[in-house]
## 1
Amino acid sequence: MGLQYLFVINKAGSLIFDRRLSENAPQLSPNDCLHLASTFHGMQLLVQQLSPEPSDHGFGIVTLETESYVLQAYRPETGVQFFVTADLKTENLAAFLRDVYVIYADYVMKNPFYELDMPIKVDRWEAHLKRLVDKYNNRVNV
Amino acid sequence: MSLTQARGEVNMDAYLALFAELVSYCRDRVESVMALQEKLSQLGYRIGRRALDLIVAREKISKRDTRLLSILNFIALTLWTFLYGKQADSLKKVRDSELEYYIEEAEPLVNKYISVPADYGHFNCAAFSAGIINGVLNSAGFPAEVTAKVLARDNENESAAQGQPLTIYYIKFEPEVLEREQRLGT
């Protein structure tokens, strides 16, 4: 059980951040990540067209379960989108994404050197993300 | 807000969001990293010049600081508390010099959310705070030059703050300050 990959995509659907969160996660090339992110974005748009009414859980794809992994997405009202893939039966993914959004708002958006909608290359964001992932893994494994 | 009213707290995140915008506004209007640092420092300077009067009025300070050490203490205690709600981490004197002092700070408030890209070298957004110190010193009659520097922390230091560079506010007074200081005697 554990997290695998985190993706952040911007309003236009291009990938602005991806990170492999575990040694056990399958190895993806940068190209694969781009591909996955834009595929997911397309799917998300499609689902939102089919079901334009937000449910109690959110809007569009919120969770996606397959035989080998789960995917959880979080889309704040601002248009940026976070999604994480994890092993089956990993819990609290929604809370994890919410925490990721909080540090994104702090360390990416309040950093004057970050260009909006561009790939995220911000030291403090990565450091805090790492800390968050560690904290999450510890809580899950205890 | 009138001077006699108690001062309210300012939300830190709102302040830092505004500061981030200030930095990127300046960045879009300068040619070089050096110029950006200079620009931030000038903005701080203008605030510092006014801040001295405001602090004196608000804290009801009746005595004017005329000595070097007392003005430095004023910076590290009163000004810092006024600006950031805490005292400065440490105030030190540069060895072998009567005119140079520095204030160390592990994490300046303004840098809390800021990651400086590698190609900006030793650029430090705390240049803004350095400008404020400079403004206060100048309007108090202590002409000086204040710069903010980044100091990479050596690895033996406490692990919690490791990797986080230390900010130094380096204060160099003009020689005339020392002359006056000697005239005033002990």
## 2
Amino acid sequence: MTPAEFDYLRDMLKQRSGLVLGDEKRYLLESRLMPVAREESMESLSELVVALKKADSEDLRNKVTQAMTINESFFYRDKTPFENFKNIMIPAMLASPRAASRTLRIWCAAASTGQEPYSLAIEIKEMAPQLGNWNIEIIGTDLSEEVLEKAKAGLFSQFEVQRGLPIQLMVKYFQQTGSLWQIDSSIRSMVTYKHFNLLEDYTQLGTFDIIFCRNVLIYFDPPTKTDMLARMAKRLRPDGFLVLGAAETVIGISDEFKPVTDARGLYAMQVAAAASAPAVPGLGSTPAKPATPAVPGIGASAAQPTTPAASGLGTAAAKPASPAVSSLGTPMATGASKLA
Amino acid sequence: MKHCLVVDDSSVIRKVARCILEDMSFRTSEAENGQEALTKCQTEMPDAVLLDWNMPVMDGIDFLLALRKESNGETPKVIFCTTENDAEHITRAITAGANEYIMKPFDKDIIEAKFQEVGLI
């Protein structure tokens, strides 16, 4: 791949997904896009670039963009966000005016193959005494249709169900199907998946009480991050929560969110955080003003930011997978993809 | 430094598991069947046991049942690590007192995740 070809691919990806690739990520382009080239019966990335430049290459462009943004995910990844969900966010929701309408909308902005939204759905099921009669909607979006199809099927390999999922929950909520494990239909039905580019207008998704957008911002340039957070702030109720990845922050990027004390990766809206309120661990204060009455499934409306082309990855980031060991102690490939 | 006893009749698995666990800053020891493991536990109760199911002399489930009856036998976190990969075996292990369950093949990430799950790291 020549420098010009690399630049072409980099620019195309930035424009279509917001993904920013530094020169050091050249290897990533090669490892992710060579399989696409081979699938198209091409022998090099140079041939792929020639094909991408043709006027009728929209399908191929989509394929290339999706190949670059697919990342592995796993259940209860990083744990802390799920502990915060259970110990801070849900208690705050229960103490809010939502207790009257008993509705909650959650957006997983980088749903990938579904482990994050399903982990939340399992947590909600486990909190049946408090949430059993609530109408809770979890929306999982991703740029890649391929990962969303996998998420919808709810079928996971043995490796996938062992990464972060406590065994007690695995036997409780999964059924073995051949060599795979399928998540129970009662959990699957709690999540709605939608193909969505984070560069698009968020208004169509409605208003949310909680937004999970973990390990996504790290792939964007500062102006795109700022734009994304500004638009998310408009989709979040005033007493809602934003959850970012452990390596991400709003500092220097957005002044609309404020870190929740002693809760890594958890943010509240500035206006609500500044006010006084419920005795919820980590929060220390109640929402400043009554939350807009929650309307299930809404897509409410408020004025949508008009920022132009902002962001759009949409998949959970990966971490390098160690070589697997078979029952005979033989190293095996895990096949996990990575983007960092 | 926490101590993990690796119980498996395969010397290769014992070696690989010990290597991973030592990388995770565990002190390790090993036994090649449940009876030998039980004897070692009676001498020094470990913090964790990484336990195979199918072994000669005494298998993993019988070891676990016997361990939990020992004085201080409730202390070690027991993580099965076996090719018995079906829900029935998993449920049986949990009922017998297993804290976690690893289905072979495994890798370092899975061992770390499971040890973290039971509070060992």
